[in-house]
Amino acid sequence: MNKKYPYQLWVTSIIIAPILFILIGLISNSKKSFTKEDLIIFILVIVFGLMYSLPVYLLNLICYRFFINNLKSAILVKVIINLVSITGTFLILFVISGEKSFNWNENHSGFLYSLVYATSIIISSLFYKVEIAQPKGL
Protein backbone atom coordinates (compact mmCIF):
# COMPACT_ATOMS: atom_id res chain seq x y z
CA MET A 1 0.00 0.00 0.00
CA ASN A 2 1.33 3.43 -0.97
CA LYS A 3 0.77 5.46 2.20
CA LYS A 4 2.61 8.42 0.69
CA TYR A 5 0.18 8.98 -2.20
CA PRO A 6 -1.73 11.95 -0.65
CA TYR A 7 1.56 13.66 0.25
CA GLN A 8 3.06 12.95 -3.19
CA LEU A 9 -0.04 14.30 -4.93
CA TRP A 10 -0.09 17.41 -2.75
CA VAL A 11 3.58 18.36 -3.16
CA THR A 12 3.78 17.53 -6.86
CA SER A 13 0.63 19.47 -7.75
CA ILE A 14 1.91 22.50 -5.83
CA ILE A 15 5.13 22.40 -7.86
CA ILE A 16 3.44 21.77 -11.21
CA ALA A 17 0.89 24.62 -10.85
CA PRO A 18 3.45 27.46 -10.90
CA ILE A 19 5.21 25.80 -13.83
CA LEU A 20 1.89 25.84 -15.69
CA PHE A 21 1.38 29.52 -14.74
CA ILE A 22 4.81 30.41 -16.13
CA LEU A 23 4.22 28.41 -19.32
CA ILE A 24 0.86 30.11 -19.83
CA GLY A 25 2.55 33.48 -19.28
CA LEU A 26 5.31 32.67 -21.74
CA ILE A 27 2.81 31.54 -24.37
CA SER A 28 0.16 34.24 -23.90
CA ASN A 29 2.56 37.19 -23.56
CA SER A 30 4.99 36.02 -26.22
CA LYS A 31 7.79 36.25 -23.67
CA LYS A 32 11.00 34.72 -24.83
CA SER A 33 12.76 34.21 -21.51
CA PHE A 34 12.40 33.31 -17.86
CA THR A 35 13.21 36.32 -15.65
CA LYS A 36 14.13 36.86 -12.00
CA GLU A 37 10.58 38.06 -11.42
CA ASP A 38 9.29 34.75 -12.76
CA LEU A 39 11.49 32.91 -10.27
CA ILE A 40 10.18 35.04 -7.39
CA ILE A 41 6.60 34.42 -8.50
CA PHE A 42 7.36 30.70 -8.80
CA ILE A 43 8.62 30.57 -5.21
CA LEU A 44 5.74 32.68 -3.87
CA VAL A 45 3.12 30.53 -5.60
CA ILE A 46 4.68 27.41 -4.06
CA VAL A 47 4.78 28.95 -0.56
CA PHE A 48 1.21 30.23 -0.73
CA GLY A 49 0.08 26.99 -2.37
CA LEU A 50 1.49 25.00 0.53
CA MET A 51 -0.19 27.24 3.10
CA TYR A 52 -3.62 27.51 1.50
CA SER A 53 -3.87 23.88 0.40
CA LEU A 54 -3.04 22.38 3.79
CA PRO A 55 -6.74 21.85 4.72
CA VAL A 56 -7.34 20.02 1.43
CA TYR A 57 -4.26 17.87 2.03
CA LEU A 58 -5.53 16.90 5.49
CA LEU A 59 -8.95 16.06 4.06
CA ASN A 60 -7.27 13.98 1.32
CA LEU A 61 -5.26 12.12 3.93
CA ILE A 62 -8.42 11.19 5.85
CA CYS A 63 -10.32 10.22 2.68
CA TYR A 64 -7.38 8.22 1.34
CA ARG A 65 -6.99 6.19 4.51
CA PHE A 66 -10.72 5.47 4.54
CA PHE A 67 -11.09 4.57 0.86
CA ILE A 68 -7.86 2.60 0.54
CA ASN A 69 -9.21 0.17 3.14
CA ASN A 70 -12.83 0.11 1.96
CA LEU A 71 -12.73 0.13 -1.84
CA LYS A 72 -11.41 -2.57 -4.13
CA SER A 73 -10.43 -0.35 -7.06
CA ALA A 74 -7.22 1.68 -7.00
CA ILE A 75 -8.48 3.75 -9.93
CA LEU A 76 -11.66 4.63 -8.05
CA VAL A 77 -9.63 5.70 -5.01
CA LYS A 78 -7.45 7.88 -7.24
CA VAL A 79 -10.50 9.46 -8.94
CA ILE A 80 -12.16 10.19 -5.57
CA ILE A 81 -8.98 11.74 -4.16
CA ASN A 82 -8.61 13.85 -7.32
CA LEU A 83 -12.22 15.02 -7.05
CA VAL A 84 -11.78 15.90 -3.37
CA SER A 85 -8.59 17.81 -4.23
CA ILE A 86 -10.13 19.70 -7.13
CA THR A 87 -13.31 20.55 -5.23
CA GLY A 88 -11.28 21.68 -2.22
CA THR A 89 -9.08 23.82 -4.44
CA PHE A 90 -12.07 25.52 -6.05
CA LEU A 91 -13.65 26.14 -2.63
CA ILE A 92 -10.50 27.57 -1.08
CA LEU A 93 -9.82 29.85 -4.05
CA PHE A 94 -13.49 30.90 -4.05
CA VAL A 95 -13.27 31.86 -0.37
CA ILE A 96 -9.92 33.63 -0.79
CA SER A 97 -10.62 35.50 -4.01
CA GLY A 98 -14.35 36.08 -3.66
CA GLU A 99 -17.40 35.57 -5.78
CA LYS A 100 -16.48 38.21 -8.37
CA SER A 101 -13.36 36.32 -9.40
CA PHE A 102 -15.59 33.43 -10.51
CA ASN A 103 -18.03 35.66 -12.42
CA TRP A 104 -17.48 35.68 -16.19
CA ASN A 105 -18.87 39.21 -16.42
CA GLU A 106 -16.24 40.44 -13.97
CA ASN A 107 -12.66 39.39 -13.29
CA HIS A 108 -12.55 35.59 -13.51
CA SER A 109 -9.00 35.07 -12.20
CA GLY A 110 -10.08 32.83 -9.30
CA PHE A 111 -11.72 30.46 -11.74
CA LEU A 112 -8.62 30.42 -13.99
CA TYR A 113 -6.33 29.77 -11.00
CA SER A 114 -8.63 26.93 -9.98
CA LEU A 115 -8.44 25.43 -13.46
CA VAL A 116 -4.65 25.57 -13.44
CA TYR A 117 -4.49 23.90 -10.02
CA ALA A 118 -7.07 21.29 -11.10
CA THR A 119 -4.93 20.53 -14.14
CA SER A 120 -1.83 20.23 -11.95
CA ILE A 121 -3.69 17.80 -9.65
CA ILE A 122 -4.69 15.60 -12.57
CA ILE A 123 -1.17 15.68 -14.04
CA SER A 124 0.37 14.91 -10.63
CA SER A 125 -1.92 11.94 -10.08
CA LEU A 126 -0.51 10.32 -13.22
CA PHE A 127 2.96 10.07 -11.64
CA TYR A 128 2.04 7.91 -8.65
CA LYS A 129 0.42 4.57 -8.06
CA VAL A 130 -2.35 3.80 -5.58
CA GLU A 131 -2.27 0.35 -4.06
CA ILE A 132 -5.27 -1.11 -2.30
CA ALA A 133 -4.71 -2.50 1.19
CA GLN A 134 -4.63 -6.28 1.16
CA PRO A 135 -6.79 -8.06 3.73
CA LYS A 136 -4.72 -9.63 6.48
CA GLY A 137 -4.65 -13.40 6.47
CA LEU A 138 -5.95 -15.54 9.30
Describe the structure.
- The protein is mainly alpha-helical and 138 residues long.
- The chain has helices at residues 5-28, 36-70, 74-97, 109-125.
- The protein is globular and about 55 Å long.
- The model has no long low-confidence stretch (mean pLDDT 84).
Record keyword descriptors for this entry.
0% strand, globular, 4 helices, mainly alpha, 138 residues
What is the β-strand count? 0
Beta-strand residue fraction: under 5%
Tell me, briefly, the overall form.
globular
Proportion of helical residues: over 70%
Major beta sheet summary: none
**Stretches with pLDDT under 50, minimum 5 residues:** none
Tell me the structural class.
Answer: mainly alpha
Mean pLDDT across all amino acids: 84
H/E element sequence = HHHH
Distance between the termini: 19 Å
Strand-helix topology:
Elements: H1 5-28, H2 36-70, H3 74-97, H4 109-125
Helix pairs in contact: 1-2, 1-4, 2-3, 3-4
Gist of the model:
This protein has helices at residues 5-28, 36-70, 74-97, 109-125.
